[in-house]
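tool_log.txt
---
The assistant was asked to compare two proteins side by side. It first ran the structure predictor on the initial sequence, then on the second. Raw inputs and outputs are pasted verbatim so the downstream comparison step can read them without reformatting.
(1)
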Amino acid sequence: MPGLTVTEAITIRKERRLPLPGRVLVAVSEAVSAEDVVAATELPGSVHTVNVAHDLNVNGDEVPRLMLKAEGDPVKAQEPIAEYKALWGIFHAVSRSPATGTIENISAATGQVLVRGPSLPVELTAYVDGTAVEILGEEGVIVECRGALLQGIIGIGGEARGKLAVMVESPDQRLTAERIAEDCTGKVLVGGSLVTLEALERAREAGAVGVIVGGIDAAVLDELLGERLGVAITGQEEVGLTLIITEGFGELPMAQRSFKLLEAHEGQHASLNGATQIRAGVIRPEVVIPNPDVEAAPAELTATELKVGSPVRLIRDPHFGLLGTVTALPEEPQQIATESLVRVARVQTEDGRELTIPRANIELIQE
């Protein structure tokens, strides 16, 4: 079953893959820092269609001889690319390029010309301090590092890197605007039980690159995004920082193990990514704190099996975000509120309740 990892020592392998084949800029066994560019490529520019036959009021088969530019020639925006003159210039028409780029195709059949805009450079950084351990042909590289890893339950925003700064004294304290200094340039702010909209706005204005906190009101998240959070993968939002929620929606104190891990590494650089997908192909938001000196298990280590004593998190309403410990794993399927027969687990939550939960609504917390 998918697990949520909170650990001081693990081997992490990150696949850094380009959207199109390009150039890999590092070699196997080469040490890299998070900001190092490890691969690069160029995305084709946008294509603009110019109806030259219409512009010149001629048939399509006449267009090639009226062109001022050939295929492969560079052009600038509004530069003439074709011209028609008749009756000693009394009739004069010009067709212009709508954008800067290159003439890609001239069609005598349609009388249209394709202008390809400038290519877009794409540079891929290592994301974490580590070592290149495998080259993926012309597409990228796998970077490996050892260190601490904390996975959250939901996040928004893409990859970021900054120094951890704990803004609260305990995991049950709110992260409010008053707790945030005027200058937080390049910092990842750690809160407790809840972050307010005012705090997020203050963090962004102060130059913070990320916020890690236990809980958030759904309405605050929607207001930050300017729309309702969808069910698809997150991570592409442009809200000025990366936000990672470790527990769930509402005022939920950050788990002690998570808070202590972040507190222990205050002042160190962390890499974080808010990308989240809860359904098929689970992707968790994460905080990676590289530490080459720790002893860590191999990266291929798989998730542990659910068993009595396993620390877990409940991931469906009405108990979304609660932490607990498995106390029993009945073998026989049981009927739940929906009248379905499913395999369940009995979980004792941190507040002392004993709950019977479908196993599909539980995720392991790997330590």
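(2)
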Amino acid sequence: MSDQSLLVPTEDYLKSGIHIGTKFKTKYMEKFIYKTRPDGLTVLNIQQIDERIRLTADMLSKYAPEDIVVISRRENGWKAVKQFGKMTGAKTFAGRYTPGLMTNPSLKNFLEAKIVMVIDAWPDKNAVMDAYKVGIPVIALCDTNNNANYIDLVVPCNNKGKKSLGILFLILTQRYLLNRHIIKKPEDFKATMQDFSDE
């Protein structure tokens, strides 16, 4: 696999651990698994991860930032998600998501969205179900142990590591800004991995 065709060099993906799955795998996620290591951990296919990140960026780029909501109940995703929101203008939600936030307009913190992205379909299941009920497309980052119910686009990746979420949102942010012509060329993107991840 040549680095030319990937969004970032293979080495950057490997260093972030974005390809390291769990010891469990669901039937749905099997097609994204490259191999199982001797210690039982599964390894995701980097080419497929890259393709899905590209697809996600292209999909999100069709929407104005105020129509995008990114949700992360898991704390490891908070920094990356907030930075994505800060740089793109997308709405973000870090912490416990209360059911009804996207379905009940009478709530004071009602979230209006045209597309939703969740960091993990399991802890973020309330958001997935809300979006599904009102017909909003859902993008979900899925590890090898995730199911894909009610999800429109699955992005296979290690969705638990700060570094892997950092690199994923770093790439997404840059691609979104480029696709929306907010920046002209990749070099205009000044953010670094440190902006998206503590590790």
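---
observation on (2): The two ends are 27 Å apart (CA to CA). Residues 6 and 50 are 6 Å apart (CA to CA).
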